[in-house]
Design brief:
The complex is a heterodimer of chains A (307) and B (405).
Chain A lengths: L1 H20 L2 H26 L8 H17 L3 H23 L5 H20 L16 E2 L2 E2 L3 H24 L1 H11 L1 H7 L3 H27 L9 H14 L5 H16 L7 H15 L3 H6 L8
Antiparallel strand pairs in A: 1-2
Helix pairs in contact in A: 1-6, 2-6, 2-9, 2-10, 2-11, 3-4, 3-5, 3-9, 4-5, 4-9, 6-7, 6-9, 7-8, 7-9, 10-11
Chain B lengths: L1 H29 L5 E7 L6 H17 L3 E2 L2 E9 L4 H14 L4 E4 L3 H13 L3 E4 L16 E3 L9 H10 L3 E5 L4 H14 L5 E6 L9 H10 L3 E4 L3 H13 L7 E5 L8 H4 L7 E4 L8 H13 L7 H19 L7 H10 L1 E4 L2 E4 L9 E12 L3 E13 L11
Parallel strand pairs in B: 1-3, 1-4, 4-5, 5-6, 7-8, 7-9, 9-10, 10-11
Antiparallel strand pairs in B: 2-3, 11-14, 12-13, 14-15
Helix pairs in contact in B: 2-11, 3-4, 5-6, 11-12
The chains are: A mainly alpha (307), B alpha/beta (405).
Chain lengths: 307, 405
């Protein structure tokens, strides 16, 4: 336990001092990996713990991103940067979850997908959200007298928040609540028979995942300074699913490794060949066939065991 | 044994992958001086890869003509695939600026990517030459000293068509475009000259982007009694709309006009004879009768498997010409960026589309002509857009742009 905590703190510290040793672009890549990592982790809470395959997780990423963009343009403060996006994502997750958790399997996938695509279509068309160009020129917030426009301060802010989000998710899956989620994944009917209000648990998990995804979306807006309707598009959900599966489902930190693998492949390999998607596809196939536990599974030696 | 080899394989593979990941930074760091670096952010995968390809091919054609050297320096193109996704396009922009330290940046196709990269480019004082994305804002309230555009603003091919249609086709027009901002902007640009010329807007309609069945809209057009339609569609939407417009027999009674993208070479083969007679406004067509264009079409066909160049290729051609001429003017000195910007703003030459020059007020291209083109079948080119009239010197109003700043 202590060893693990020490290890995690060492990793966080390493991420925090990374800009001191690396150039601007590697730092940008690391920041993007961390943001997508948090987004993928929130999806892993649903996919890897509660067994809910959501194909509409982009809805919360987009809502967080858009609410942050609108609010930050009004007043660049903490409230706009984190509180409002989280609240909006929570509300959306409550509504979408209320309808979606009533069904499971393919129907759950289709329903979540449909909800996220509705947001996409809306954001793509309406002028007050900037239509297909999205919202641009979003300022970074000022916190406690610190101006996040400075690259170093922003990096530390990102690392701290992302560490916090990871800690929250980690506490959630370790709690009795998290164990109930695991139970639901294993055998939903049995959990219900034992007396757990399964739907309420699933809804709460959905909302927590939605909030964290919303925060990730907000951080992304602050990172690039703009947000476009593509944030809502189903490919955003699809990429997060890929990250979780490549990294290893049901492990949380696997999602971050998956995000790292995905973004590095996308950014570095594609500079050399237009066929980078082929390489990504092959990687995915190899992982599913030979390392169903993802990167985490491979690292802990569970290689070759079929799912 | 079996287990062990697989594990070994994965271990070796991950070490190799890590090496491949770190390698580029180490290698790139060593090559700072020497060639002029031109960063290209375009889609090279997905549906829009054909656009990225056309633009790139024409750029390479021009650079190859100069043996990839300008003012004694080698030209190096660093191509990045933006996948038509803003997050990826922005990340690639940052890579090209921060890591590759390119001297000049060019691209993208997607307006969302352009708007997303705008602040990064502006704040880092990187010279960007836009080679497709038509967002009007980049020539207006979001213009920048550091950003030029060789392609068009969405306003440019539409605004001149309004007056022309009112005068030469009909004063009773039905407008139709996909339900998104660019579509609505183009329709508004058309009305700017259509209404003052005495035109009457019978009705307008906005089907969803990616609509496949235009029957209800075509019925509406028929019942409205409009004598002409002004439409903007592109890609598969353009194919479906133009074909169905013909299949419903409207072509005989209602004249179809539109923005040039409606019948560009990327959709024309699929539209086939349905497109015959459609009138569109655009700054280029391969049949233009000027020596530069004739040479360009000949060279392009010779180099790329008899492929006829399109408007996108001309955008690439002009981008490369602008880069070459500006670099020659400053003797290959890319350090003094202010001088280089001045040199780019002053570039003027004969392009396949006519006399090319930038508007000093917006850094957007002044279209030498917007050609009114009719789809016809001609011997050498097959189905193509034949210019029947033209409007000269079309420059974006640049409302809200405060250049030179």
């Amino acid at each position: 336990m202590i060893v693990r905590l020490l290890g995690v703190s060492a990793l966080v510290a390493a991420a925090a001092v990374f800009p001191a040793v690396a150039g601007a672009y590697p730092v940008k890549l690391l920041q993007e990996i961390l943001i997508w990592g948090v987004f993928a982790m929130s999806l892993d809470l649903l996919l890897g713990y509660a067994g809910m395959v959501s194909f509409g997780h982009s809805a919360f990423f987009g809502i967080g991103g858009y609410v942050a963009a609108l609010a930050l343009k009004q007043s660049p403060h903490l409230l706009s940067a984190l509180v409002l996006p989280a609240l909006a994502a929570a509300l959306a997750a409550l509504v979408i979850g209320f309808f979606s958790i009533r069904v499971s399997g393919v129907y759950f996938i289709m329903l979540t997908l449909a909800f996220s695509q509705m947001f996409y279509a809306y954001a793509f068309q309406v002028a007050w959200l900037g239509a297909e160009d999205g919202i641009i020129g979003v300022p970074r917030p000022r916190l406690l007298g610190l101006d996040l426009a400075s690259a170093t301060v922003f990096h530390l802010y990102l690392v701290a928040l992302i560490g916090l989000a990871a800690l929250v998710l980690w506490r959630v899956v370790r709690s009795p609540f998290g164990h109930v989620l695991r139970g639901i994944q294993e055998n939903e009917g049995r959990m219900e028979a034992v007396g757990y209000p399964v739907n309420r648990y699933k809804l709460l998990a959905f909302v927590i995942a939605g909030i964290v995804a919303g925060v990730a979306g907000s951080l992304y807006t602050q990172f690039v300074g703009s947000i476009t309707p593509d944030a809502f598009f189903w490919t955003t959900s699809g990429e997060a699913l890929l990250m979780v599966i490549i990294g290893g489902t049901g492990t949380l930190w696997g999602a971050v490794l998956g995000a790292a693998a995905f973004i590095l492949l996308q950014s570095l390999v594609s500079s050399y060949t237009e066929r980078w998607m082929l390489i990504l596809g092959l990687t995915f196939v190899l992982f599913v066939l030979f390392a169903p536990g993802g990167i985490v599974g491979a690292l802990s030696g569970r290689v070759g065991r079929r799912a | 044994m079996d287990q062990l080899t697989r594990r070994r394989f994965l271990q070796t593979a991950s070490v190799a992958a890590a090496g491949a990941g770190v390698g580029p930074w180490v290698l790139r760091a060593q090559a700072q001086s020497g060639p002029v670096k031109i960063g290209v952010v375009l889609p090279y995968t997905g549906v829009y890869a054909v656009l990225g390809e056309s633009i790139t091919q024409a750029m390479e054609l021009v650079f190859a003509r100069e043996n990839w050297t300008v003012a004694g320096r080698k030209i190096e193109m660093i191509k990045e695939d933006d996948e038509m996704k803003p997050p990826v396009g922005i990340r690639k922009t940052e890579k090209l600026i921060d890591s590759d330290k390119v001297d000049i940046l060019t691209g993208p196709v997607h307006s969302g990517i352009l708007m997303g990269m705008r602040d990064k480019v502006h704040n880092s004082k990187t010279i960007l030459i836009v080679s497709n994305a038509g967002a009007d804002a980049i020539s207006r309230e979001r213009c920048s000293k550091w950003i030029f555009r060789t392609s068009f603003s969405n306003w440019q091919p539409c605004q001149p068509m309004g007056g022309w249609v009112a005068k030469n086709v009909s004063k009773e027009v039905f407008q139709i475009a996909p339900n998104y901002q660019a579509g609505k902007d183009m329709m508004a640009a058309f009305r700017e000259t259509f209404l003052p010329a005495g035109g009457k807007l019978i009705a307008e309609d906005y089907p969803k982007l990616g609509e496949t069945d235009y029957a209800p809209y075509i019925t509406k057009i028929k019942q409205s009694g409009a004598k002409a339609v002004f439409a903007f569609f592109s890609g598969t939407d353009a194919v479906n709309f133009v074909k169905q417009f013909d299949q419903f027999g409207l072509k005989q009674t209602v004249k179809l006009t539109g923005a040039g993208f409606l019948t560009e070479p990327d959709v024309l083969p699929a539209q086939g004879k349905s497109a015959l007679g459609v009138l569109t406004g655009h700054f280029y067509t391969p049949v233009l009768d000027n020596p530069v264009n004739k040479q360009f079409v000949k060279d392009f066909k010779a180099r790329y498997n008899n492929k006829t160049p399109d408007g996108f290729a001309v955008q690439g051609y002009d981008t490369a010409e602008v880069i070459l001429r500006a670099l020659k003017a400053v003797n290959g000195n890319t350090q003094d960026k202010d001088k280089l910007v001045d040199a780019i703003a002053k570039v003027e030459f004969d392009s396949p589309r006519g006399r090319f020059r930038f508007d000093p007020k917006t850094h957007n291209v002044i279209q030498p002509f917007i050609y009114v083109r009719e789809v016809r079948e001609v011997p050498e080119f097959g189905l193509t857009n034949v210019p029947i009239d033209k409007v000269a010197d079309v420059r974006d109003p640049g409302t809200g742009c405060t250049l030179p700043a």
